[in-house]
Amino acid sequence: MISFSVTERTQEFGIRMALGAGRRDVLGMVLVRGLRFALIGISAGGLIAFAATRVLGSFLFGVTAHDPVTFLSVAGIFALVAVAACLVPAHRATKVDPMVALRYE
Length: 105
What we know:
Layout: H1 2-8, H2 10-18, H3 23-51, H4 53-56, H5 68-94, H6 98-103
Helix pairs in contact: 1-5, 3-5
C-alpha cells in the first residue's frame, strides 16, 4: 500500500524537492504515513487479542492469557516489520529527481 502511494505521489515529491524539501523530509513523510497505519493496526489487533483471551486461553501452554511481555514483544515485532516494509518505498521516494517528477504524466 505504501509502495503504491509513493508511486502515485511521485510528482508531489518532485515538487516538494524542487521547492526546497530535503531527502530527509520526504523520507520522514513516507515513514510517518506508513507507521501511522501500522500503529492503528497494531492497536486494533492488540485490543481484539486482549478481548479474545478468554476464548483462546485454553489453547495457550506455558503463557498466561494476559501476559504483558508477550503482548508487547509481538507489538514490537510488528512495528519493526512495518518500519522495514516502509523503508524501501521511502528510500525510493528520496531518489526522485525533481525535473523528472515535474515532467511525469
